[in-house]
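FAQ: What does the model actually see?

It sees only this:
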Amino acid sequence: MTTFRAIRVDRVEGGTRAACVDFDEADLMDGDVTVRVTHSSLNYKDGLALTGKSPVVRRFPMIPGIDFAGIVESSSHPDFAPGDAVAATGGGLGETRLGGYAQRARAPAALLVKLPGGLTPAQAMAIGTAGFTAALCVMALERHGLKPADGPAIVTGAAGGVGSVAVALLAKAGWHVIASTGRPGEAGYLRDLGAAETIDRAELSSPGRPLGKERWAAGVDAVGSHTLANLLAQTKYSGAIAATGLAQGMDLPATVAPFILRGVALLGVDSVGCPRERRLEAWARLARDLDRGKLAEMTRTVQFDEVIGVAGEILAGRTRGRTVVEIPA
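And it is asked to produce this:
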């Protein structure tokens, strides 16, 4: 019997429990490619899965971790060969499909991408699901026809994983970026990533008017609830907000006024079911446009056996940027 180390979430009386265990390789799910995982990351959804604060996990037992990177060990698919450096995000990893907090993972080829542009597995997970999602948001705004000349772009939850990468990508593309954060001490960090100005999240987090002063042409929102409603109410005519998070809440206490009086668009962005062609486009964009120095600045690394202990930090808003999880060989 071949086993490897993994974090496993089990259902227990009153909730769930996460623990490091020896996992039998024979119990891995079907897939075209088996990967020796070297790195994963800690995303907001991972924090929910590890702590049991929300029913992210849909199948038990589950190896959490909604993304991973590593080296292909074996493959039955012609697009991948042993030795290839690959990454996977979404596709049910850590929810319905065994995820990345383990020394081994097996996945369908459609979920994997070869690492582009000289990215290492560690850098790929410094980007991770959050950075990948940020790229999808920026691409959605561009597909809508928006450009820096149209006005500023706002990013909420700007010091978090999605927000940090969104700030860097938008600034690289020439946008005047307004970073919204509840942590004033992160203003210097956000300026280093490319933010032109910062605002306190309190400006946006309380109930607001159906329409407000037009302040920005575009935005990336990872917060939801009143924050997203206020973003929409203050978006310029024909502008758009890309929405991809619910840190404040799943509700949207808004009116139709921004949509029918200003032609504002709300662009929903999902990274889990993203088609392969768009995955490849997003990773190519990240490899090309995300400054490696800024990526390093927004990243910290924790060891595999630390991740359960730090999971609550991301839910409490005490993390900054991205957290990479190093998987032991």
